Structures are given as structure tokens and as C-alpha cells.
Amino acid sequence: xxxxxxxxxxxxxxxxxxxxxxxxxxxxxxxxxxxxxxxxxxxxxxxxxxxxxxxxxxxxxxxxxxxxxxxxxxxxxxxxxxxxxxxxxxxxxxxxxxxxxxxxxxxxxxxxxxxxxxxxxxxxxxxxxxxxxxxxxxxxxxxxxxxxxxxxxxxxxxxxxxxxxxxxxxxxxxxxxxxxxxxxxxxxxxxxxxxxxxxxxxxxxxxxxxxxxxxxxxxxxxxxxxxxxxxxxxxxxxxxxxxxxxxxxxxxxxxxxxxxxxxxxxxxxxxxxxxxxxxxxxxxxxxxxxxxxxxxxxxxxxxxxxxxxxxxxxxxxxxxxxxxxxxxxxxxxxxxxxxxxxxxxx
Length: 346
Description:
This protein is α+β, with helices and mostly antiparallel strands. The chain is 32% helix and 25% strand. The protein contains 9 helices and 18 strands. The model has no long low-confidence stretch (mean pLDDT 85).
């Protein structure tokens, strides 16, 4: 993490102040209290400070697409990134932006959460106050927000925490990747040189940043790969969880879960486990051909009856994400304080 930070600053990066209203489009939830909303299939976000703000599964006509940040009006430090589609009570403010993704959303939510400690139940945040809120975010020399840097910080912290985890008390077992996933080629490989960008759907390539998304394109939807899968770059071993349908470039394999529902938390754990399993492979290695990929062993926690303990993995990642967010905020404050000291002394 420190190496990433040092490289960012050495290359001219800095922390600049941004107004929330200039970064996001803000809306508000439309549902009544949870006990007045019928049960259903969508997450309902209310003012609870636990479970990522989710109070129940609800039926609603007022659905907000996932990839958003939610802020409680009455408890302004209750700020969460929402990956899945959801409905929300009227006491929830919602922030959306086209450039938002999971890692950047987690980063900004953590910064906003700490910033909002000035508010309480008697001094509530409001639409206008949230819009006028200013936060410091990493910025490239070009003046653009450092999206890849924020995403890299979050991913590094998550992987560091998982890799360092003491699992001695948890029984583990090796599994072949093809026991967990169907591994197959993309439905169609699109050459970037023949594409028109600025379309509707994700175009996944082999890059290591921005969740593998090189651009957005509009092509025949019959060639879209399914959401809730993992995209795998064969010669770069780049792996990303894709929560929306997507097209791909060359040498991308699609990993679809077998017998379990793949969500963001499980994907985070399994991707880290696979990276450890691939640690002896080299970049561009023929080891990443499909047959070897399927046979690679990864170590996973198991239950008493020997089955894979998906519940444990979900709970673990949830706990790690909470710790990561707290660590990001603390580290950012240290960097800003040190930068101010250097500027003052010079």
C-alpha cells in the first residue's frame, strides 16, 4: 500500500478537494418504513448501520440500479456502497455517477463516512448539505480523478488482509478450479481496432485496471457473456468479477459458478485464492491455457461435512471490507497531514 502511495505522489499525484454535487447525481429513496413494504426479491436500504444498510428483501416499483452510494439522512455516517439493485426508504440519499465502480465506491464511501461525523440526529444532513460537502480525493497531474489508484488501494488492502489471515482454526481442503467453475471461451472475441467506443455494454480486455473494462461498446447482444461471472485474461492472469453482461477482446476466459450463486464477496475471496494458486506461473505463460487453468488447485475452507464453506467466505470478506475502509481513511489522513507539513516547512 505504501509503495502504491509513494509511486502515486512521485508521479505528480496529489489530493484535491471536490464538491459532492459536482461529482454525483443525487436522488432520494421513495419507500416507506420497512415494516410497511411487502417482502420481495430486492435489497431494501434503510438507516441501519450494519449489513451494508440492508434491512430486508422487499418488493418495490422504485428500484435503483446497483453501483451507487447510499447516505442516511438521520445518521449521516451510515454510508455504504451498493453493488446490487435496491430500493430505499425516504430517509436515504442516493449518489450515482457513470464512472463509479465497486472499489472506487468503497473508497469514496469511507471518506464520506468520516467527513459526515459533524452531523447527528439533531443536526441532520440534507440534500443541499450533501451536495455542498467537500472531500479530498487522489488526483492525477492531468486533473482527472485517480480512479485506478483508488481501486488498486482497495484491492491491495483486501488481498493483504486475506493473505495474512490465520486460517489454522478453519479446516481447509484443495479443490480444482473446474470443481467450482465452468471455464469457457467468450461467446465472441471483438478486436478493439474495429470497434466504436462509447456504447452501452462493458468491453473487457486484459488490462489490470478499471475492473478489466477497456471501454463500452454496443454490439449484437447474443454475444454478451453472462453477469455474475469472472473474466480471466489468459496471458496476464487478470481476474475480475463482472456484475453486468459484457463483451470481451481476445484471450479472455469466462468462469461461471457451479452449484452456487457468485456474488461480489465470494468472488473477492475466490479470486484471491486463485491468485495464490497461480503464484508459480509467469506472465504470458502457457500455464494459463484452459486445460491447466481447470486443473489448478486452490485451498478453501470447508464445513464439518467436507463441503465448501461459502457462508464463512462471505462473512470473512464482509468483515475485511469494514476493516479496509477504516484503514483507508486513517492512511489518507496521515498522507494529507504529512503533505501539509512538508509544504509548510518549505
